[in-house]
Amino acid sequence: MDAIKTVHYNKPKLKGSLRVPGDKSISHRAIMLASIAQGRTVVKGFLDGEDCLRTVEIFKRLGVSIERNGTDVVIDSPGMENWTSPTKELYAGNSGTTARLMLGILSGSKVTSILTGDDSLSKRPMKRVTTPLHSMGAAISGKEGGDFLPLSIVGSTLEGIDYNMPVASAQVKSAILFAGLNAKGETIVRETTVSRDHTERMFEQFGVKLERDGNIVKIQGGQSLTGANVKVPGDISSAAFFMAAAAMIEGSEVQFVDVGLNPTRTGIIEVLQQMGAEVEILEKHGETGEPYGVVKVTHSRLEGTEISGEIIPTLIDELPIIALMATQATGKTIIKDAAELRVKETDRIAAVTDELTKLGAKVEATEDGMIIEGPTALVGGKLQSYGDHRIGMMAAIAALVSDGPIEIKDPSCINISYPDFFDHLSHLVLARNEE
């Protein structure tokens, strides 16, 4: 993909049906648990984006056989106890999920390894994960007391802990639970607010017994995992960009097929309805494992709202596109309690504020969110992606509601989670200019 992409549409509207790529979070965990388990696992609907492929390559280096055929993946693992220490560094690329969850997995393994990432990931904090892991007995060392990649991990005998999470984070929770799989005794994680529960659901799919009581998760160490069949639903965080577009643009109506409906991820649906969008769940499946279904979004007049508190962890990746949607809503939209946005692939609060302001939006950054005044007519302009797939997709969707073309610098970062994004965008737009 070109280093700069120009996107421009003439009075577009979105119509049709779409199956977005597989859920990134679930795809990561499917490969991880299949590699920990002994035997064969078959994964259907895997996201073959850059982040998830980093996870695949890491486990191949640990001696796991992984064969991909498009979105179907077959994993044959000798089991975690039979992994081999890698001869080269384990490279997580830009994937924070890969890095943080691998720290928990590798800490309780029998291998010695060095975990690295790209320049962006190497600036993202790891101490939120390494601190609880150190208290379990993990042997992790590296820059600034283990706060930044690269990190050296010597597999060790771990002890279970009872950990109070300072902030809701599915990555930190998952890292501790993965470590708890191989720790002596019981590991307990207590959250202030329930974060994504993909790890807990998938543990159960692979035969792990755990206890869940509200915001408390308990797991006994020493459990054996066996291979399983895993269906990965469409990623609602990816669908959110087209859901917002359909809600904003007059005459639009889009159906999303087989999209994930995990209640810890459906905050975007709640916010769309709160702002006045017409959202219908037409079908729902997946009584065991991950729920999924068909969702229809139809344009309607949008109103500003306040987004805060317990809903924030359920839509942390969707806040950039919600901010864009708020520029087209009547009144003020306030986003708060979202300080986690400052330590994502980039500082998303600063990035969203800067880029939308370039288009003429009225956006004010706060310490833990944003205040957006609408509705505002957006002009075209040159936008940065910051190498962040969510910012890149937000910039592309902005071209649907801007008066002029939008140039996106480094659009290739969108491949991290949505390689077919621009093809799907063109598929849904009925009236458009040539890009």
Instruction: Please identify, by name, the CATH architecture of the largest domain.
Output: Alpha-beta prism
Query: What's the CATH superfamily of the largest domain, by name?
Result: Enolpyruvate transferase domain
> Helix count?
13
Flag low-confidence runs: 431-435
How many structural domains are formed by the residues?
2
Structural class: alpha/beta
Q: Which descriptor suits the 3D outline?
A: globular
Strand order of the largest sheet: 2-17-19-18
Q: Quick one: CATH class of the largest domain?
A: Alpha Beta
Alpha carbon gyration radius: 21 Å
Outline:
With 435 residues, this protein is of the alpha/beta class. The protein is built from 13 helices and 25 strands. Residues 431-435 have low confidence and may be disordered.
List the helices and strands and how they pair.
Elements lengths: L3 E4 L7 E4 L5 H13 L1 E7 L5 H12 L3 E5 L2 E7 L11 E2 L4 H12 L4 E5 L10 H9 L3 E4 H4 L1 E7 L3 E2 L2 E3 L5 H12 L1 E2 L1 E5 L7 H8 L4 E4 L2 E5 L8 E3 L4 H13 L4 E8 L6 H8 L3 E8 L6 E7 L7 E2 L11 H9 L3 E5 L12 H11 L3 E5 L2 E6 L6 E4 L4 H10 L7 E4 L11 H8 L7
Parallel strand pairs: 2-17, 3-16, 6-7, 10-12, 11-13, 20-21, 24-25
Antiparallel strand pairs: 1-25, 3-5, 4-5, 7-9, 8-9, 13-15, 14-15, 17-19, 18-19, 21-23, 22-23
Helix pairs in contact: 1-2, 1-7, 3-6, 4-6
Question: How would you describe this structure to a colleague?
Answer:
This protein has 13 helices and 25 strands. By secondary structure, the chain is of the alpha/beta class. The protein has 2 domains: 4-22 and 233-428, Enolpyruvate transferase domain (UDP-n-acetylglucosamine1-carboxyvinyl-transferase, Chain, Alpha-beta prism); 24-231, UDP-n-acetylglucosamine1-carboxyvinyl-transferase, Chain, CATH 3.65.10.10. The strands form 7 sheets. It has a 4-stranded mixed sheet with strand order 2-17-19-18. Strands 4-5-3-16 form a 4-stranded mixed sheet, with helices on one face. A 4-stranded mixed sheet has the order 6-7-9-8. Strand 18 and strand 19 form a beta hairpin. Helix 3 runs parallel beside helix 6. The longest helix has 13 residues, at 24-36. The chain starts with a strand and ends in a 7-residue tail after the last helix. 53% of the residues are buried.
